[in-house]
Amino acid sequence: MQYLKKDDYRNYFRDVFGISEDILKNYHFYETRSSVWAYSGDIAPISEAEVVGVRALRVRNIIKPTTSFLRIIGKYATKNVIFVDEDQGMRFLSGESLSEICQSLKGYVVVRTASDVLGCGLCRDGILISQVPKKYRPDSTWL
Amino acid sequence: MFEKYSGIIPDFESFLKAVATPQPYWFRVNTLKIGEMELVSRLSDKGFIIERFRNLNAYKIESMPVKHPGATLEHSFGYYYVQDISSMVPAFVLDPKPGETVLDMAAAPGSKTTLMAALMKNEGSIVANDTRASRLRALGSNVERLGVTNVMITKGDARTMNFKNQYDKILLDAPCTGEGVIRKNPKHGMPGDREHRYFSQLQKSLIKNAWNHLDTGGKLVYSTCTFNPLENEEVVQYAVSKLKMDILPVEFPVPHVRGVSFWEGKDYTDISNFVMRIYPHLLNTGGMFIAVLEKR
């Protein structure tokens, strides 16, 4: 796979989520056909690599942040952040949409509780739509 | 079925009792995402009874309110990794530092890779390799869940693959017959001599390619989760005698014994006092063999 270094993607996280350069400078961003990877390693990606760091963005038709990377840097976000309580958080993690949460926000947001970053949400028409992948959704037996 | 090892495993009766009982769960805190005390407090609040082992980031679960230790939100957030302490030792012994380059030749499912990334604070680089797609998926999933960003995952036959760099440190946690994990997989059949010989050859090929990619003065940790000397002392002796590597003593504060000196007519006394064997009855864990080698 070809990995093209495109550190301009730092601007996305700075502009959309207000994450500081001090945090973003720890990562280099590499673009493949449909993804952008955040990588803090020193060795340049080799063509045999299947994965380089953590997938940070999907870039097919629109740019969409991933829950995995937001769970790493989302705690530093100062813009487009929605705080939810524990009950709302469990519903969000389970894939439910939540109304009357987004207020004036639009587009992708970091959703978090006081203690944890839960993942990526999408604010559309005042509704918060969970973007948390199924693999991270809690089972009813979980604590 | 372990009778053939009665002459090399000390306190053999206790060993047999241990392998016949289920293995307790251990975990380590993923310090890339959360502090140890914070996670311990959260799990305790949820009803987990856990015990820290000495001054290590390694916790034994004495009891828990869920069927599996991974059935919590904290696990899903990547705040901890369920891993037997014996399986942590090779990574702790390799002791990778931030900024170093590390090759993990047989990395899936990523237990040791993710521990090394935590020790390196996500700085420096780890190339984590494995052969099969299904195992790579597990590796990728764990790397992602734990927030490991300094890892590059490759797929290839580590016996012959060109990893394109020379590395400061290499972990070869080699494919093996897995006798040491029988408590976790009781259906795992006992391997015969043919399997031990097959894996021994495979492991020698792997350690040869590890040597190819190690910087002069670089450190290699060789480990397996099996007991047979053909897959352990035999392979280490090959690295010392044929590849001219130096063997260094393994020091780590978990209960262990030194290596086997004689087995099936072979003499391993030149290396047996340097290596470490962890047996299930010593700390109620799985089994592990660990050796440290240095390239001249």
Helical content class of chain B:
25-40%
Order of helices and strands of chain A: EHHEEEEEHEHEEEE
Quick one: how many beta strands of chain B?
Answer: 14
Helix content of chain A: 10-25%
Structural class of chain B: alpha/beta
What is the number of independent domains of chain A? 2
Radius of gyration of chain B: 18 Å
The succession of helices and strands of chain B, N to C, reads: HEHEEHEHEHEHEEHEHEEEEHE
Low-confidence spans of chain B: pLDDT under 50, at least 5 residues?
none
Q: State the end-to-end distance of chain A.
A: 40 Å
Overall pLDDT confidence of chain B: 96
Q: What structural class is derived from the secondary structure elements of chain A?
A: alpha+beta
Describe it for me?
The complex is a heterodimer of chains A (143) and B (296). Chain A has 143 residues and is α+β, with helices and mostly antiparallel strands. Chain A is 19% helix and 33% strand. Chain A has helices at 10-17, 21-24, 67-73, 86-93, and strands spanning 4-5, 28-31, 35-39, 49-52, 54-59, 63-65, 81-83, 98-99, 107-112, 117-124, 127-130. The longest helix of chain A has 8 residues, at 10-17. Chain B has 296 residues and is α/β, with parallel strands linked by helices. Helices cover 30% and strands 22% of the residues of chain B. Chain B has helices at 12-19, 36-45, 73-76, 85-94, 111-119, 133-145, 193-213, 233-241, 280-283, and strands spanning 26-29, 49-52, 59-63, 80-82, 101-104, 125-130, 151-155, 167-173, 214-224, 246-248, 262-263, 266-267, 276-278, 288-294. In chain B, helix 7 runs parallel beside helix 8 (233-241). Chain A binds chain B through residues 26-27, 38-43, 45-46, 48-55, 68, 71-72, 93, 116, 135-136, 138-139, 141-143, and chain B through 33, 46-47, 65-67, 71-73, 76-78, 99, 101, 122-127, 136, 140-141, 143-145, 147-156, 161, 163-165. Strand 4 (49-52) of chain A pairs antiparallel with strand 7 (151-155) of chain B.
